[in-house]
Amino acid sequence: MILAQVVLNGFLVGAVYALFSSGLTLIWGMMNVVNFAHGDFVMIAMYVAFVAFTALHLGPAFFVPLAALVLFMLGVVVYYGLVRHVMRGPMLAQILGTFGLALVLRYATLWIFSANFVSLPENLLGDVVTFAGLRLEPSRVVAGIAALTLTVGLHMLLTRTALGSRLLAVAEDRSAAMLVGIRPDPMQALAWGLGAACTGVAGALIALFFYISPMVGESLALIAFVVVCLGGFGSVPGALVAGLTIGIIESLTSFWIGPAFKDVVVFALFLAVLWFRPQGLLGKA
Amino acid sequence: MSISRRPLLAAPALLFAGRAMAQGAPIKVGSLMPLTGVAASAGNSGKAAIELAVELINTPQPDLASMPLMATTGFPAIGGRPLQLVMADQQGNPSVAQNQALRLITQERVVALTGGYQSGLTQTASAIAERHGIPYVNGESVATNLTERGFKWFFRTTPIGPDIAAIYVEFLKAARVNGRPVTKVAIVNENTEYGTSIADVIRRTAEAAGIAIALQIPYAANSADVSAQVLQLKDAQPDVAIFISYTSDAILYARTMRAQGYRPPILIGDDSGFSDDNFVQTAGDIAQGVINRSAFDPSRAGSNSFKVNALYKARTGRDMDDTTARIMQGFLVTCDAINRAGSTAPAAIQTALKATDLKAEQLMIGYRGVRFDDKGQNTLGSVLLVQLRGREYVSVWPTETATAQLQLPYRGWE
Fold first, then answer.
1. What is the pLDDT of residues A118-162, one digit of tens each?
2. Which of A16, A38, A131, B366 has the lowest tally of Cβ within 10 angstroms?
3. Which of B40, B228, B286 is nearest residue A115 as measured by Cβ atoms?
4. What is the tens place of the pLDDT at every residue in B190-243?
5. Handedness of CA A73, A75, A78, A81 (dihedral sign)
6. pLDDT averaged over chain A?
């Protein structure tokens, strides 16, 4: 019974990993830009949820879309204000550009909200339910469902719509896309906006069960990069598969061997996968 | 032309500066705190307390006259020169702590260093002070080995690992006498210097007293998920669970235990994370009855602790927690030694620190006093057990000094 709970928890944690990686994989896959500010986007979304709840008394049904909207705008602003310019520079400028952005966001938040930890009441979506002897936290279940929905939604958008084709065209070959009449700037701004909006949904949902502090991005960012890399760069379904895999492996390793060793096992497996499939589990070679 | 004139123009200014130095140039004391990084909440509380200490030293405080340097202005034995704090952010990173210590010593020219917060960082920073022959006084890091390194310039005011283990084990023995089983004890500890050393000393002390540690779960601090640890405990069903964690993990443990419906009969949360006011405000409501150690009890009106807490609260809006109080006391002891040294020479301060003999009433914390042994460890540190009741820790053990009745079993969220 305990083991079933361990696997279930791993699955739900994995869904959360997938959830906060979906935005990163979109930006990475579409633009070939590594967004080092990703963890801090999640953090900003958590504070949007927190402020909306405490100051405006808005419930999750409102603050999740609000966080998505705020982060969409942030993504677009970041694209036009920063990314568009650093993309013309060398690779190092791109990396350090978003890294600088991460620090600006983190320390601006530290300045405004102080280093204190805050949190939302843990039963905003109702209390823990017991089902067949398994304990389920509604907030984590909702986060899991949102991860699946977002993944499917993004995948459909990219593969089944004209807009998706235009986004992919720009990602594939910017000049060729321009030749067939697609203006790349709005497309790439849209990719940043959508990626950031997904991150916004993720952050607001994670805020339901995690603590909130200006440094929280640090705890979450590394795992997002691993998820995206393992799943395959730019592959939205890949992020889901990789997130779930990592969640379950972490959970089982922690339970059987000990939590201090979970990173060893996860990263060893990660390296092993890259050895055989450098493009990631579902990435294209 | 202009080159030859410059020294002439600068000479009077230099003379003037020299005079100012002799009369009232501030004496710099450095402090290392995690102002950013995952321990930033604790570090900023420490910073606020140290800044309060600087203000209290630099302005007369007749109300706190029983404490050294409070009734006067600055350092009276060094011509009344004011105290200047140089605060550095060690970012929770051992190598940054080292670099900052070096910077404070060589560039800022501080006369003494304090702080460090995480034991692992105090370890690296104090090694730099040792090499440069600058006194380093720590008030908060509890890993035993810090004062076992044969350092000549390192002093520590806080009670340490063995003191802490002793009170926990005494308490568990008493609980056993009261008919509560304590045969199965589990320790969950973060795996850096602090968690590892405290876990080890608790294990040794407990086993010497005939209490076996059935389960030990070390984990990497700042985890994104701790449910596996909680399920391991739920599976093993220990009589007592002892957590040694920093703030972010402590919050996550409380939340996860609630989600998994797990409550050990006795839950001990060792100081740092569990004493942080951020933990109490964020997760206190679902961790009712958690037992903690403390040396700071601001509840007695008129005591130094009470008055200092009131001043701190006026500044920050929050009560001072135990770790913050220990940080502040360490800083005050440093300043007292500098004044008694009557000079800013490192060797004179070192001699004054060795001669420190503060009585309980000269402190703002509940130690029996401050007197250092040959290793630089305070021999008069003391610790008591407190229990979380509402959003406040009340002292519950030893019973002679307790202000409230111990309540068992652990209630958690109920």
1. 999 888 888 889 988 899 989 989 988 998 898 899 889 988 999
2. A131
3. B40
4. 998 899 999 999 999 999 999 999 999 999 988 888 999 999 999 999 999 999
5. negative
6. 90
What are B243's strand-pairing partners?
A: B188, B269
Q: How far apart are CA B30 and CA B100, in angstroms?
A: 10
Question: For A6-61, what is each residue's pLDDT tens digit?
Answer: 999 999 999 988 988 888 888 887 777 888 999 999 999 999 999 999 999 999 99
Per residue in A95-116, is it b (16+ CB within 10 Å) or e — as a string? eebbeebbeebbeebbeeeebb
Query: Domain tally for chain A?
Result: 1
Q: CA geometry: angle at A223 spanning A219 and A226, to 5°?
A: 155
Largest CA distance in chain B: 92
Question: Which tokens is A215 given?
Answer: 């440094």
Residue pLDDT, tens place only, A102-115: 999 999 999 999 88
CATH code for the domain of A170: 1.10.3470
pLDDT in tens, B152-181: 999 999 999 999 999 999 999 998 888 889
Alpha carbon dihedral B276, B281, B286, B288, in 10-degree steps, equals 60
Q: What is the pTM of this model?
A: 0.86
Are B290 and B305 in a shared domain?
no
- Is residue B404 in some structural domain? no
Q: Do B252 and A211 touch (CB under 8 A)?
A: yes
In a domain, A249, yes or no: yes
**Is residue B312 a contact partner of residue B51, using CB atoms and an 8 Å limit?**
no
Give the DSSP letter of residue B75.
Answer: B
Q: Name the residue among B85, B58, B86 with its Cα closest to residue B70.
A: B58
Give SS3 for B391.
Answer: coil
Encoded amino acid at A230, one letter = L
C-alpha triplet B127, B81, B66: angle, nearest 5°: 85
- The reply to whether A285 falls in a domain is no
Residues B150 and B179 in one domain: no
CA–CA dist B239, B410 (Å, integer): 11
Per the domain annotation, does B402 fall within a domain? Answer: no
DSSP letter at B371 equals -
Cross-chain Cβ contact A5/B247 below 8 Å = no
What range does the domain containing A87 cover? 2-276
* pLDDT value for B1: 39
Detail the DSSP E strand segments found in chain A.
Answer: 129-131, 134-136
pLDDT of res. B272: 85
Nearest CA in chain A to B248: A211
The closest CB to that of A128, out of B234, B252, B259, belongs to: B259
Residues B254, B256, B260, B264, CA torsion sign: negative
Please state the domain count of chain B.
2
Give the length of chain B.
414
- CB atoms B228 and A259 under 8 Å: yes
Asked if B55 contacts B320 with a C-beta cutoff of 8 angstroms, the reply is: no
| Secondary structure element (H or E) that encloses residue A10, with its range | helix A2-31
Q: At how many degrees (to 10) do helices A60-78 and A184-206 cross?
A: 140
The structure tokens listed for B173 are 């023995």
Closest residue, chain A, to B262 (C-alpha) = A135
CB within 8 Å: B227 and A13: yes
Q: Find all residues with CB under 8 Å of B341, minimum gap 6, and list them.
A: B77, B348, B349, B351, B352
Candidates B171, B164, B112; CA nearest to B143 is B164
Residue B322 CA: distances (Å) to CA of B142, B169, B199: 13, 20, 20
Q: How far apart are CA B4 and CA B9, in angstroms?
A: 10
ipTM: 0.89
C-beta separation of B64 from B327 below 8 A: no
Using DSSP, state whether B83 is helix, strand or coil.
strand
